[in-house]
């Protein structure tokens, strides 16, 4: 069995990978040109990053060239659908923090969709807080 040497949350490890671990999805965050961020999922983040850099990634990274990988998050799932849920969560969080126009990835590929989603989340959050305060 092949051994893998790498980093996982700052800890180096050298242990055999199980077949399940080989198919675990990661959410990754790329810092891109124009002060943008791209969030995606991959089984192999390094290979996927190279695809983005070489123009074989998403349309967003074709317009905003990736500079570096800034975060790699293990999802602990081998199911792509569940990994996509994690991906969307991080896209929304980065969109709220840096602005929807500065973030790409997830299910928000059409222009304006992420901004609308963030507005809906903020509106719902404010409404919930108001209801909690008013109807105690």
Describe this structure in words.
43% of the residues lie in helices and 28% in strands. The strands form 2 sheets. A 4-stranded mixed β-sheet has the order 5-3-4-6, sandwiched between helices. The chain has a two-stranded antiparallel ribbon with strand order 1-2. A hairpin with a 3-residue loop joins strand 3 and strand 4. Helix 4 packs across helix 5. The chain contains 5 helices and 6 strands. The protein has one domain. The longest helix has 22 residues. It has 136 residues and is of the alpha+beta class. The N terminus is likely disordered.
Helix share bin: 40-55%
Q: Report the count of strand segments.
A: 6
Shape: globular
Number of helices: 5
**Helix and strand sequence:** EEHEEHHEHEH
Work out the count of structural domains: 1
Helix/strand structural class: alpha+beta
Poorly predicted segments: 1-17
β-sheet strand percentage? 25-35%
- Rg over C-alpha atoms, rounded to the nearest angstrom: 17 Å
Distance between the termini: 60 Å
Main sheet properties: 4 strands, mixed
């Amino acid at each position: 069995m092949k051994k893998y040497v790498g980093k996982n949350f700052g800890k180096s490890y050298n242990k055999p990978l199980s077949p399940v671990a080989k198919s675990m999805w990661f959410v990754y965050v790329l810092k891109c040109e124009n002060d943008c961020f791209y969030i995606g999922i991959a089984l192999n983040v390094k290979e996927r990053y190279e695809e983005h850099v070489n123009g074989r990634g998403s349309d967003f990274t074709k317009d905003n060239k990736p500079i570096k990988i800034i975060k790699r998050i293990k999802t602990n799932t081998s199911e792509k659908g569940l990994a996509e849920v994690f991906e969307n969560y991080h896209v929304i969080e980065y969109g709220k923090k840096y602005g929807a126009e500065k973030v790409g990835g997830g299910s928000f590929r059409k222009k304006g969709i992420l901004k609308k989603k963030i507005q809906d989340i903020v509106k719902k959050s404010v409404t919930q807080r108001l209801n909690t305060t008013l109807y105690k």
